[in-house]
């Protein structure tokens, strides 16, 4: 599939997606040494390289600032790369909860968050998110929710995001295009979960939503964005 898309890129003369991402990251995004080290250390610890790109991470940081977020919820921490960007979008007295299933991922994330200077703002809840999210009831609302864990649970995570929201809460659902796989109604469980969540985003009476495709170092993918009304 990647080869096919390489051909499409060349035909349109758009250059190499990853090279353009590198260029944009160097010229515009400027991740600091702690953020660069976060990705390197996650890889060295054997974590899969499935974190957001630097440009996407900074987009999340800016979104947090645009939303004036004081409390952020993330589902899917990995090594804490997106967590670090999001936490840097918080004010000094803000806070963030991030849910992660794998203890090793949480351990790597804790070190990365401390090095990024935001560890004191972030509470990592280790366990299956569907088990840890109910523990957040009573401490809502969150101003921004980033959903980026096991895709089959996306509809349930979206329901939790709404339950823990207030009018104006921003919800971001990652990886919704999956190299076009989202078009396949008979796709795997990740595609089924993503399609169901997108349908919910498009039909839920309390959500105003959109979805955008992206290309870059992470290939052809996209995200959906909603605001709770
Ligand atoms: C795509 S990665 C997250 C990437 C991260 N948001 C970033 O961009 O830096 C997905 C993470 O979700 C975690 N995960 C998978 N199933 C989970 C579950 N049921 N509950 C919580 N976390 C889960 C995985 O272990 C993995 O670390």
From TrEMBL:
Protein name: O-methyltransferase
PANTHER family linked to this entry: CAFFEOYL-COA O-METHYLTRANSFERASE 3-RELATED, O-METHYLTRANSFERASE-RELATED
Annotated InterPro entries: Cation-dep_OMT (IPR050362), SAM-dependent_MTases_sf (IPR029063), SAM_O-MeTrfase (IPR002935)
UniProt keyword annotation of Transport present: no
Keywords for the protein's UniProt record, in alphabetical order: Methyltransferase, S-adenosyl-L-methionine, Transferase
Short name of any one Pfam family annotated for the protein: Methyltransf_3
Database matches in Gene3D superfamilies: Vaccinia Virus protein VP39
Record lineage: Bacteria, Bacillati, Actinomycetota, Actinomycetes, Micrococcales
Protein's UniProt keywords contain Transferase: yes
């Amino acid at each position: 599939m990647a080869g096919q898309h390489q051909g499409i890129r060349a035909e349109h003369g758009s250059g190499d997606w990853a090279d353009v991402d590198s260029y944009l990251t160097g010229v515009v995004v400027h991740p600091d040494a702690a953020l660069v080290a976060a990705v390197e250390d996650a890889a060295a610890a054997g974590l899969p390289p499935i974190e957001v790109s630097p440009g996407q991470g900074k987009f999340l940081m800016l979104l947090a600032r645009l939303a004036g977020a004081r409390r952020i919820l993330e589902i899917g921490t990995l090594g804490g790369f997106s967590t670090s960007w999001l936490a840097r979008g918080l004010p000094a007295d803000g806070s963030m909860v991030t849910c992660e299933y794998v203890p090793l991922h949480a351990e790597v994330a804790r070190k990365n968050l401390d090095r990024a200077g935001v560890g004191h703002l972030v509470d990592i809840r280790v366990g299956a998110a569907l088990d840890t999210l109910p523990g957040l009831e009573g401490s809502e609302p969150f101003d921004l929710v980033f959903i980026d864990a096991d895709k089959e649970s996306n509809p349930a995570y979206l329901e939790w995001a709404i339950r823990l929201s207030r009018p104006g809460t921003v919800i971001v659902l990652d990886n919704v295009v999956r190299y076009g796989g989202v078009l396949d109604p008979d796709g795997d469980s990740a595609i089924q979960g993503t399609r169901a969540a997108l349908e919910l985003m498009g039909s839920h009476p309390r959500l105003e939503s959109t979805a955008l495709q992206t290309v870059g170092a992470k290939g052809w993918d996209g995200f959906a964005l909603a605001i709770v009304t």
